[in-house]
Amino acid sequence: MDPLLAISDLSVTFATDRGHVQALDGVSLDLVAGETLAIVGESGSGKSVTALSVLGLLGDSGQVKTGKIEFEGEDLTKVPASRLREIRGNQIAFIFQEPMSSLNPVLTIGTQVAEPIWLHHKKSWPEAIAEAGKLLAKVAIPDAEQRLEDYPHQFSGGMRQRVMIAMALACQPRLIIADEPTTALDVTVQAQILSLLKNLTKELGSSLILITHDLGVVARYADKVAVMYGGRIVETASALDLYKNPKHPYTNGLMASIPKLDGDPGSRLFTIEGQPPDLSDLPAGCAFHPRCPHAHEACRAGKPPLRSVAPNHELACFGYD
Ligand code: ADP
Ligand code: MG
Prior knowledge:
Elements: E1 5-16, E2 19-31, E3 36-40, H1 47-54, E4 62-71, E5 74-75, H2 81-90, E6 92-95, H3 99-102, H4 109-121, H5 125-138, H6 144-147, H7 157-170, E7 175-179, H8 187-204, E8 207-212, H9 215-221, E9 224-229, E10 232-238, H10 239-244, H11 249-256, H12 297-301, E11 307-310, E12 313-315
Parallel strand pairs: 3-8, 3-9, 6-7, 7-8
Antiparallel strand pairs: 1-2, 1-4, 4-5, 9-10, 10-12, 11-12
Helix pairs in contact: 4-5, 4-7, 5-7, 7-8
Bound molecules: adenosine-5'-diphosphate and magnesium ion.
């Protein structure tokens, strides 16, 4: 099957007063229709920049230096801003971490959910409002129709995130990108929202990119996983394979820091020693080497390329015994 989205060798820099920051360095990813890809990594690893690149939302200081972002065969790094806006409204939807910053506080929820339907589907306003009510019911908002008249501040954090999902689904996009959609929410609500997102995406036949810093949540929701570190992808595999057989020392570290339900309640969680790298001042060689318990000479000398190590399993590591 042709990929829906194929990112190849994507490098992105930002101009800052401290000089150029290389936020992404040769990122390659793809996903086919209907697939869920999780992008996992600590804060500052380049997850959001990857997502923003897809939609051309890097801002004035960001620049794609190399690479392609092909969406249904069209290279999004080459298309004009007007075409990107069209794609953003129709084919690719975004869900951000903080719904309050994406919702307009002075407009009712109904108005905000109905607007994209009215705009993109050329429906009458009453039809769009009716559709919005159905969507809110679909994302399991109790008394959906009555709540169309409410304002964002009358909704809880979890309910606002459900509204964001409803808005993302409104245009029946081919791809939904959710950037840490549940980070601000408590664990139970988090699980409900992720299940909802996953089920509705499946129902629509859309693809989903789920960005998270929590490897613990991806197993249940993702088909495959890309682990990022220092602006590069260090490992990709099916979610199952990654859990059973993580190969990168960084992935192993993330895995060891997931709380276990059956773990000893008194035991301390494992944390990876050291700090995530500063992208404006990356170490030579593999960016992970200063924190890697297995680093050797080759790791300090050059960057390990991402290469296939098993079927559907890629690794960027010089290896260790
Ligand atoms: P995360 O994995 O936490 O989502 P980001 O993709 O947001 O990380 O950012 C990765 C790095 O890229 C940041 O640590 C920062 O160094 C750099 N960066 C991101 N956005 C900008 C920007 N607008 N200007 C300058 N640097 C940026
Ligand atoms: Mg981010």
